Batch of 2 targets.
Target 1
Amino acid sequence: MRSEFLSARPSQYFVRAVVFGAGAFALVWVVLWAPKTTYGPAVDDPIDFATTFLDSMTLAGVLFVVASGFTLIFGLMRVVNMAHGSLYLLGGYIAYDLQQRLVHNANPGFGLLSSQVAVWQWVVPAIAASACIAVVGIVMQQGFLRWNQGQDLRQALITIALSIIIADQMLAHWPIQESVAWPGTFDRFVSIGSIDYSLARLFMLAVGVVVGIALWLWL
């Protein structure tokens, strides 16, 4: 059985390499060699195209991290956690509140400036919020989901109800959209060839890549 599994891995790597190569070739073709259309070239400004491409990749990295958590929980524990997104958002708001308490804001009516935030004032809220959400997840598992192990429909209904409750409580406590401020170290632009791009977004993309590689090697 193990030998069959090991023999199947090279073919999987080959398929993934072919898919990746085809995608890379299509991207290069669109940017460099695609013929003009009746409305002009396929890519009018390569720099704008590259910036938009990086924007989409960083957003995809964030969504991948969120989705990988959902997939990991379902794959290892067989738990259908439809409240996963609400817990992710709750963690963000907890980190926001903690950061507001750690940083002295001279203008409390306005958001924090990146120049006011040190790296540790971003890392500590992120770790603390993750720990808080881990505790909430344990309570959900032990209080509601453990009794319905293997009952996918019941788990889905329970977690949907919990998601609605959590969302309503967040709306009551944080009536407007807030966001955690990046530290000044990351809130700047770096040059990538002819492109000036946000270092914070590149960090988000790097986190997504690291998580993807770690899950690939682990699982």
Note: The beta strands are 189-192, 195-198.
Target 2
Amino acid sequence: MNFDIKKSLEELEDTIFKPSDFESNLILKCQELMKKKLKDYSVEDLRVMIGQEIGLKYLVPLALDTLMENPFVSGDFYNGDLLTNVLRVDKQFWKQNEDLLFELNEIIATVKITINTVLPLLEDYESPS
């Protein structure tokens, strides 16, 4: 990573997240996370910000490091919710960041192996004897 995780997104992007006239819980959460140092981000923080496509060039590498350890890691919703949001990132981002795409493809390969191994066992388990 070519950035300092001891800095916040506001510091790294040299920008201030401007208050909105419409202050939903999500907007307030994103404003809060813009000020938080990246080293202190939780899985849920990554999930939220990546889901909003904020700070992707900083947060996707952190998310991929986490997903390499456990592709099914969860934020506050369900197992694999971080991976789900990473997979929803606009394809243009991946075209511009082929090194990150390579890492994502490694994670996807691991997930596919797991699914292909477990799915037949689940189907067999659920079948009446």
Note: The chain has a mean pLDDT of 95.
